[in-house]
Amino acid sequence: MNLSHRITHLTGGGSDGWDVFYKARRMISEGVAVTELTIGEHDIRTDPRILAAMDASARGGHTGYAMVPGVGALRDAVARRITERTGVPTSRENVLITPGGQSALFAAHAAACDAGDTALYLDPYYATYPGTIRGVGAIAKPVRTRAEDAFQPRKEDLAAAAPGAKSLLINTPNNPTGTVYSRQTLEGIAEVCTENDLWLISDEVYDSQVWDGAHLSPRALPAMAERTMVVGSMSKSHAMTGSRCGWIVASEEVVAHLINLATHTTYGVPGFIQDAALWALDAGETLEAEIAAPFRRRRELAMHILSGQQTVTAVPAQGAMYLMLDTRATGLTGEEFANALLDRHHIAVMPGESFGQAAAGHVRVAMTIEDAAFGEALRTLCGFAAELAGQPIIA
């Protein structure tokens, strides 16, 4: 008996740099003090008021099966949020509540692609993207972006990759780079999608974390609402990562089919979690700003620290909770630098190679520890890079 090719080939093989993360976790389990700047987990927990709403809902009896499309009031709240922020009229019929953004990504690709279809995604990429595409039986095809462009995708590169493809997955504000796609970039993406009849899957889970410029949803561009599926989540905007509550926003026809898919896969999201999410969304932008404030503050701290040295340079950190740092001046790959930093200073960062080859020679730093410790760790990283750049590299 053999397992399916689909399940055994979700990943492309190899660690892709994640060995550094696992090594750091082993060190911690052995009692070594490690400063972790690896994954995008808030250093604050879910707001107690959200938890109180969750508790009240559960104790009030909302613990049975919830409606598969989502609680009507929550779908309405998501629709209002999207309408207010994008200007695109959106109703509950355009919204499916999902068990987190990852589930939404899988469902969107299941809707867009048949087995054997080609699905495009951008390199660098969030770690699960290629496996999600392979999970629906599609062929995952990366389109490389460039550090010299601050990882803004070029229209000509997309156009070259698009013929014969069925979908394109983008992420802005971007994990891992912190790039926020410009209007020009998004208009180029829209043109390529229209000219090649591509579905556009837009991961916008960091839309509340923009430090420079403005977030523009491609669904708001002319003629894009019908071909765009937007993925959103409570995880990053409201520090509800463990609650697993997200959504897809798409045309009514798409959502109707996605509801059918959810009926046969996830069977919805627990009602008490949805009620907590509704409370959080009804709290408005003030709460979202509170959740985002530490990352905005640490981004400013990082820019100040980086401006005082010349070895490490940053991709413009326009949004999200990460910095993508160029460490090529050390002569090391991103993975080599991350391992050396962990061994010497017990600071754990993610190699750029963990997110594809476009970010080789970079490391991603998560701004997810308190300000003073974050500043100290970043100064140590820069000092270590300067030390390496000033001496011969020993193999």
Supply the key terms.
395 residues; alpha/beta; Aspartate Aminotransferase, domain 1; 2 domains; seven-stranded mixed beta sheet; five-stranded mixed beta sheet; 14 helices; 42% helix; disordered C terminus
Spell out the blueprint of helices and strands:
Elements: H1 5-8, H2 19-29, E1 35-37, H3 48-59, H4 72-86, E2 95-98, H5 100-112, E3 118-123, H6 129-135, E4 139-144, H7 155-161, E5 165-171, H8 183-196, E6 199-203, E7 228-233, H9 234-237, E8 246-249, H10 252-263, H11 271-282, H12 285-307, E9 313-314, E10 322-326, H13 334-345, E11 347-351, E12 362-366, H14 371-389
Parallel strand pairs: 1-11, 3-4, 3-5, 5-6, 6-7
Antiparallel strand pairs: 2-8, 7-8, 9-10, 10-12, 11-12
Protein name: aspartate transaminase
Keywords: Aminotransferase, Pyridoxal phosphate, Transferase
Cofactor: pyridoxal 5'-phosphate
Question: Explain this structure to me?
Answer:
The protein is of the alpha/beta class. The protein folds into two domains: 5-45 and 286-388, Aspartate Aminotransferase, domain 1 (Alpha-Beta Complex); 64-283, 3-Layer(aba) Sandwich (Aspartate Aminotransferase, domain 2), CATH 3.40.640.10. It has 14 helices and twelve strands. It has helices at 5-8, 19-29, 48-59, 72-86, 100-112, 129-135, 155-161, 183-196, 234-237, 252-263, 271-282, 285-307, 334-345, 371-389, and strands at residues 35-37, 95-98, 118-123, 139-144, 165-171, 199-203, 228-233, 246-249, 313-314, 322-326, 347-351, 362-366. The protein has a seven-stranded mixed β-sheet, with helices on both faces. Helix 3 (48-59) crosses helix 11 (271-282). The longest helix has 23 residues, at 285-307. The chain is globular. It starts with a helix and ends in a 6-residue tail after the last helix. The model is unreliable at 391-395 (pLDDT under 50).
